[in-house]
Specification:
By secondary structure, the chain is of the alpha/beta class. It is built from eleven helices and seven strands. The protein is globular.
Length: 268
């Protein structure tokens, strides 16, 4: 049995000032990955999907075409406002966090979590989801990474600038410490112990401005966290990106990933 350390402090307004920068900056998950997860999760007519820690609704919108209803939940009002803008008619947004999960929400075929699971009490969230997810249903944890390929040569200097200005030491230190328990281990000790990884790798041409927005969308370098250092952060990021910009674009290779966790092997 894996011992999971105490969760990070619950700060429901942590992403208030980051919200406006999230959709313009964060990499979108590959459409092929969304289709693959929808198929593996067995979504079909009548299926309900929860987007937990939905932020501005990136995943909720992506899964709406595959579900009868998407319930998008987040504790930050500004994120929910953005999620509700132009939301499809089958997507409903509501305030809450993993601590508010309960029977009143109904049953779900799939619960998706994008870039938010590490903020939760992970073991508690999975135990609560066990009571809401259908017997054949699943949890999907979405993330993205940048493989160490030549197209991503700009990343090291870009990341170093962000680390210099970041005020998110509690998060960074926890995840880089030897005590941090990876999501895979938490899943294996949960009711959803059959875990599969799905990934799609794409070369993209991203506007330079989106990479500035990406930095401001992070909790440790959001405008409210770094205050009057926003201009310095922006200037330094432009300096390190300059050698890699071509006609306003930077080439990056993005790997969109999903950890799909079932109670048992769905092929058996």
């Amino acid at each position: 049995m894996t011992v999971v350390p105490s969760p990070l402090p619950f700060e429901p307004r942590r992403f208030r000032s980051a919200a406006a920068h999230y959709l313009p900056g964060r990499p979108a998950y590959a459409p092929a990955l969304i289709r693959r997860v929808a198929a593996l999760a067995g979504l079909g007519p009548g299926a309900r999907v929860m987007d937990l820690g939905c932020g501005p609704g990136q995943l909720g919108r992506a899964f709406a075409p595959f579900a009868a209803e998407v319930v998008a939940i987040d504790p930050e009002p500004e994120m929910l406002r953005l999620a509700a803008e132009d939301a499809p008619p089958t997507m409903r947004v509501q305030p809450g966090s993993s601590y508010d999960l309960g029977p009143a929400l109904g049953r779900f075929r799939l619960v998706v979590i994008g870039r938010a699971f590490h903020w939760m009490d992970r073991a508690d969230a999975l135990a609560r989801l066990d009571g809401l997810i259908e017997p054949e249903g699943s949890v999907a944890l979405f993330a993205d990474r940048h493989p160490p390929v030549p197209d991503n040569a700009w990343r090291e200097a870009w990341r170093a600038v962000i680390d210099t200005h970041s005020s998110g030491g509690d998060v960074r230190n926890a995840r880089r410490s030897g005590a941090w328990v990876e999501h895979e281990a938490v899943l294996l000790d949960s009711p959803f112990a059959h875990v599969e990884r799905v990934a799609v790798i794409e070369r993209r041409h991203t506007p330079e401005e989106a990479l500035i927005q990406r930095a401001l969308s992070m909790s440790g370098t959001s405008p409210s966290r770094i205050g009057d250092r926003v201009d310095a952060l922006t200037r330094e990021l432009r300096d390190v990106l300059a050698p890699h910009v071509r006609e306003g674009l930077v080439t990056e290779v993005v790997e969109s990933t999903a950890l799909l966790a079932f109670r048992h092997d769905p092929t058996e």
